[in-house]
Amino acid sequence: MVDSATVLHVDLDAFFVAMELLRRPELRGKPVVVGYLGPRGVVSTASYEARRYGIRSAMPTLRARELCSSAVFLPPDFSWYAPASKTFHAILRSYTPVVESVSVDEAYLDVAGSEQLFGTPVAIAEAIRRRVRDEIGITASVGIAANRLVAKVASDAAKPDGLLRVPPGEESAFLAPRPVRDLPGIGRRTAEILERLGVTTIGDLAALPESVLVAKFGRHGADLRRRALGIADDRVVALRPDRRSISREHTFARDEPSADVLRATLLRQAERVADDLAREQRAARTVVLKLRFPPFETLTRSHTPGRQLLYTEELYREALRLFEAAWDEHARRPVRLVGLGVTGLTERARQLALGESTAPAALQHALIDLRDRFGDTVIRRAAELEQPPPRESPGRAPH
Questions:
Q1: For 20-34, 211-225, 358-372, which range has the lowest pLDDT when averaged over its residues?
Q2: Residues carrying an active site annotation
Q3: Is 161 one of the annotated binding-site residues?
């Protein structure tokens, strides 16, 4: 019988800390935190010893120091981590071409069709974990399931240095006893609303009538219940290893309450991301929004409209929908950081729709030429004139 649980989520355990311990073995067994210090510095990764004090990724480092003053704090050294990340992704691609890398230390694989060469999904997962240990010197955890959603929860449950397979048909039973925050996409505010409805576990969420969730969360409520049951139509999308995403993000000097400023920032980011897509002759399939609220609550939202995305206006339109819904959900609180990214990059091959002209492409190429010759701020949209142009941070799309 063919095994339909062929999706693997592979995650390197406390990657940055693990890499630091390779060259600082004397720190093994101690609470170690990798992250920038300073008033806006955040924790990138914490060792499992540090996590026992409540320290976690994305926490302000000042707060982490309050929780564990004896912890060793180290600044990130990406030049040291990058070769290991490259080796990690090369290991994954040696088992299947269907690899969706979502960060330097995390990826999804679909190994359907690889069994005759490498054995069962469990055998492949064990081989990957063994090679990560032998070739890099660190450990990885793997979740195996029939879809990405459950595979992700399974790998988190297997940490550290573990492997967990959820058999097809047992997704709901596996998820049911776990805290509702373990379900991807459930942020702090959503969890608080659910708690007021008596929901503390994923099973509690699955047991709620869909009508109750739709009344509270709109169409998103129906999706929440499906996900709580382990139902997800989320295929692994193979991405070229050299470029998996394009994004821009900006941290405001002060938490920003103005809708006009936030929208103008999103528009500027859409323009820069569209420029990058055009330069590389790429298109995107998914738009990703990232928002951070004080003190340090971060959320991401994404949408895949079912067509190639190429131009500023369409990226901005999709991002703005995500932004307005997410901002409303968080009571339109001041925003510390806003980011716009795209994933699912493909070759640029969209045909013109009926009535669509080539004018957007011509305008885009003209703007790119001007910016390449005279600098990024030589020409700006009127919506951007309300504020000085911030220095955008390019990087991977949020997840």
A1: 358-372
A2: 106
A3: no
